[in-house]
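Escalated from tier 1: CU-O-CU linkage holo job.
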Amino acid sequence: ALVMACGSSSSEPTSSAPPPDPLALTPVVDENPDPRIVEFRLEAREAEKQFGSIPVTRVWTYNGTIPGPLVDANVGDRLIVHFKNSLPEPTTVHWHGIRLPAAMDGTLAMQSPIPPGGEFRYEFVLKDAGLFWFHPHVRTDVQIEKGLAGVIRVRGTDEPVVDDERIIVLDDVRLKDDGSFPTYLDDTSKMMGREGNTLLVNGVANATIPVRAGATTRWRILNVANGRFFNLTIPGVPLWVIGTDGGFYGEPRDVDHVLVAPAERYDVVFQVPANAGGELELRNDPYERGHESGLRPPMTVAKVQIDTAAPVTNAAPLPRPVQHITRLPDGPVDTPIVLNEATSPSGEILFTINDAVYPNVPPIMVDNGAIRVLEVKNASEMDHPFHLHGFFFQILAKDGVPTSAGDLVDKDTVVVPMMSTLKLVARFDEPGMWMYHCHINEHSEGGMMGEIHVE
Ligand code: C2O
Ligand code: CU
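Tier 2 regenerated the structure:
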């Protein structure tokens, strides 16, 4: 498709030309005239980027930008990606949350790493609407931290009607005063995942997010940070959570905080006040995910600037989106997955699954087409965001308490709180070797990863 929705906002009024948006994501250049195909070049390469007022940082990027480019597509479209690795080390591209053939999933179980200078063609059909992302599946603790993450927005046929929509990519980077990335990890980062000293919204430090007074606004939020959880609030503004990773909730929820763990997405709608003094705050409030992380003070993620010049007077009502999933049946748990931490004989922190470290975790074997119930037990003193490749799962129960019908949703990443157990169900209907792991990148690289073999 050559004609693409531009920038990150699709429902902007056409009457007045809005000023350039510093938070706009750069769209990929679609080279294919077929409207049902999105075909583009994607290059992983070094670039320079200025974060705030510190000296320029040497970063790793897709097509030169942080975050990487935005892929906008419609459900059913085919994606063709001509990928080139211009990094000084091997990489792959993993398409987080997308249901695709295993050979296209970008994991080392299914693909050999693309060497420096190497190329690879990824091609698959986008079966589901939602907000997805792509990132390397090699040395993720380093490669994602250095900037390799891009966004895929797949529109469904019945998207909720709102006045404004924006993609919010949350990240943080840990930078030294000279702008460089530290080459070692301190013990806290090894334990909790690297948390940055610079918060980013769409790659921008100290960001200001513009909103229109009175507008019913949909923010599609994605957290690409290595380890930071964002416990988001906009003080004084009720948030209406309509969806998450792979779809909409049965019943939208009215909340004042949305917890977005690494790799999760949340679809949040709110009404911008018509007359609130011009400015709101997007704030990250304390959340205890282990080791007294909840004792830290709140942090401003971004200012939210209300544009009162052209208030929306006839705002769209809060949407009740259409949910497309069918509830999968409960059943016996055949393979418990126990997440834990351990110390190696040499004193290193290890992150384990069933007391083993990847690749020594025995694979879970599943017949193609089978529906399986997995129990994920977190035996450690910290939360782990559990991610399954290739398939959505539904959360059947948490600590024995069944999920209510309104909370049922398709997820690919979920927080398993410390000392808690989640019961998940998925239909494994695509053959191949699929990864599951904690999405704190220091944890997956530290061993908390396993494979599911569907055959
Ligand atoms: Cu974002 Cu293996 O995943
Ligand atoms: Cu973890």
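The chain has three domains: 37-155, 164-307, 333-454.
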